[in-house]
# Entry
Amino acid sequence: MGVVFRSFDWASTALGALDTWPQSLRTAVSMMLSARHPMYIAWGPDLLLLYNDGYREILGAKSADPRQVLGRPFCEVWHEVWDVVGPMLAATLQGDTLWFEDQEFTLTRNGFAEQVFASFSTSPIRAEAGEIAGVLCVCSETTGKIRSQQERLRLLDAIGEATRLADEPKAIMDHSTRLLGEYLGATRVAYADLEEDNDRFTIRHDWRVEGAISTVGEYSLDLFGSRATSNLRVGRTLLINDVDRELAAQDGADMFNQIGIKAIICCPLVKQGRLVAMMAVHQQQPRNWSADEVALVEAVVDRCWAHIERVRSMEALREADRRKSEFLATLAHELRNPLAPIRTALELLRLSGDKPQMLERVRGTMERQVDQMVHLINDLLDIARISSGKMDLQVKRVDLQSVIASAVETSLPLIEAGRHALALDVPPEPLWIDVDTVRLSQVLSNLLSNASKYTTEPGRITVSAGTRGDSVVIEVADTGIGIAKQDLGRVFEMFSQAPHSIVISKGGLGIGLSLVRHLVTLHGGTVTASSAGPGQGSSFTIRLPRALETATEAPAPAGMAGNAAPSGQPGLRVLVADDNVDAADTLAFLLREKGHEVRVAYDGEEAVQAGAVFIPELAFLDLGMPRMDGYGAARALRALPGLGNLGLVALTGWGAQEDRARTHAAGFDHHLLKPASPEGLDAVLASVTKEK
# Structure
């Protein structure tokens, strides 16, 4: 049946008459002769070699005349490998069944020495009496597989070396697609990133042979068809050997034929359950892609992405560093802005004496500038709370109209100062939403302030609201400087700013819109920006879940503190303790002006000593004082005779939820942020006066 063995004749010539063979050898020889897989038998004390047709490929030129090989001792036929194979055959003759994978040998075949790899298993064959007399070996040459793997590794190493020092994604794409395309002899290799919506992809770069068209551009995943798209999303490679035979028009055939492609490998890259990138190899004729070629493309796209992520991470770090540097410079500028008029106002106070008109003007200036500084600092604190996950919303059901009214009231002075027209388009019927009223009002105030600052005087600002399905939609539009298309995607990023000259002239830290996005997201909503371009105005749209069941806002509980102490009430004995001498003295002066008796201390121990003599009814304590901090001073004061009911106020620059929880646990009755607002101060005084 075979080229070597047409019968048992050659075997009987080598091993003697057939009737002398044990049944185990007859069975082994019969199985070997009928098998297509390379097999040989080494029999007897000299391990005489018998083989089948499949083994002839491994023998090479030695198999040209079977009489020169068949029936000869194995060590003579394969003397080059006897030092490796001999011990294996000897172990098998001792009863072992062995398996060896991808063993490396140097063989002389067809007149040339060459490196060869083979996998094989050996098992013993027993003679008539039961003793082991031979070895059956099933083998296969794996030289082609190993060389393919080596070539693949060399290509991956070349790609790694070419991209190792690349400092931009385009260079990585260029090297990777070119090396892969040349290795595979492909028509085109394209690299694509998925857009944020995960429904579109952008081919950033493609390598192609001369005459092939470029595919760089943005496309919809729907072009692949629903089945292929769903597979790509979960990381399954799209493998097409013949576009016309395997694809329907709606499943990608039209797309590939438009660019002259008949075969394709498209390897997706999925990270954390999300499709992030793809690499596609195109061929202009049908092609039966091998498993090794597919595995190679998958390995290249994975390595390419790793290098691109590395470069993008470095770019992001450099960009973040640049933005932070600009932010710090802007912060210094913005803090100097209010400090300059405050310093000038102080000089005017010194020169003007007690002129009432001048005093009133200076007071207004200082109030506005301090409010501006407090606003800047509060924005920074809010961003820090949100970033650390410590922002708690006080959600209640309200009519959106009341929130818009509050935001407009806050922003109206800035709008009027810019001589802008303000238009409100809000339906008369209630729009109920479950929100933190203060925070949503803050969001709208930020958007109105931005609109006012970046609209040339006089301009027009429009606030509109309505419902769309289950959402409440709020839009703040202006006729201002607009936003360039390339900047729309990053206006909500931290430290993102308009052109530097505008920011400096109008004011701003570049965190307002980032704060807007975070606060809206905390409410389960979204905010987007749109603009027709520079000079064409901007529009910011907020979508929030609509409260489907209407409700009325509960009235404020009775007994809420007012803004000032009740008139006609006697003054309080107040202790003020702060290691900042100016802060302590100015607060004491203000309290005395309000009719209270005040003692001042400049550290914790001094506060306790003063409290033992003064017996205050209320104490304002800075938390970070030397010698004894505010917490220790609070405990010591409360332990003094007659001070068990002392009202304690923490006066600090720390205002996070955990800071307030700590002061409450330490026994403080109130927590005021520096600088304390007049309203907050009056509320504390009123609450203590009421309890007298």
